[in-house]
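Demo today. Your pick:
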Amino acid sequence: MAGFLPLLVVVPVHGQSPSPALKVLISLQKPFEAEPEAARIYLQIHNSSSEPVWLYRRAHGPRPMERIVSEENKPTETTGGSIVDVHLRLADQQAAKSIVSPAEGKVLEYVLMPKPRLVKVEPNADYKETSIVRLQPALAEGDKAIWGAYQLTVDYSASFSDAGEFQRNLGVNLWQGQMTSNTIPVDLRPALPDSMGVLTGSALTKDLQPRAGMRVSLQDEKGLLIDQEITGVDGKFSFEHLPLALYWVTGRQEGSTEDTVTYRHQELTRSAPSGDVQLVFYPQEINDQKQLEHKPVLFRVYDPKGQPESGIDLDATFSNGDIIDDVKGAIDSDGTAMLELLPGRNSVSMKKRGCVEQVDRADVSPGLGADSFKLVFDCTKK
């Protein structure tokens, strides 16, 4: 990535002061992408400030604005996360005059249950992440794809409904804002002549009725993501221009916090270059904590004088009668610890050598984003 010059833009969110300055550099796994491959974009985020910054991973593509749900007798849901927005433009300005539909970069989601985390980036340190992106060329008259040289840039942004609480309660920075990466070239190429495979199908209920809002992923034999679609009211999906090979088709309910995944495999051959797959989703009883989406929670432990504690082990336990989840962690020298917990009431025990165990409570809010809790540990000698 040497030689790339990043353009940094930091935008305040919700009227707050700008977060510490970050820079993002991008590079590609390879300089060209042929239909129907997905590109792997490497993001390198540098903390150029003099203080640590917490980042939310993993970044996803742009989604409709999420609202905070606040109804009587219902807990307020938090919102937030990190977003990678891909911008793709034709390098040849003369050819760009014939565009009737612009080029697009669609960020693909990971197939398995999302595992969001908070990552601490120290001053003058880097954090690296990979985004899998489906790059689609611009179209000219008659829906004719314009192949060739393009320029690729990404906007990396983050916003959280409760970001201010991290600073007020814990004195830490949960980064939010927006920054624009460097621009890199990419060559988009059409599918090879023998890429004649087609995979179609439907997402269905147990009664074989169409299922809308299902994220259907196409993976190759090695499990690498190729493309994704979200089903409409007819429940249908379609993937074209595929090399003849073995594929996995996986479906998950978009936005679900429970493991709703179902999958099928389909082999495309010269004698059978097309296939039809039905993904049937059955209601399932969730009785395993691994099938539920956890939420990143940042704790900071202080002594009674307001100084960060150290040498403390945390043990958070969640139980709702059906599911028991136990998560352990240890606080850093600055008193912080990040645990991935289930939304709801968690009992948090704090243990330190020579001190009586202390138990506190953390009510983790439902919704997306992250939570924060300030704990005070008053050591009573054993």
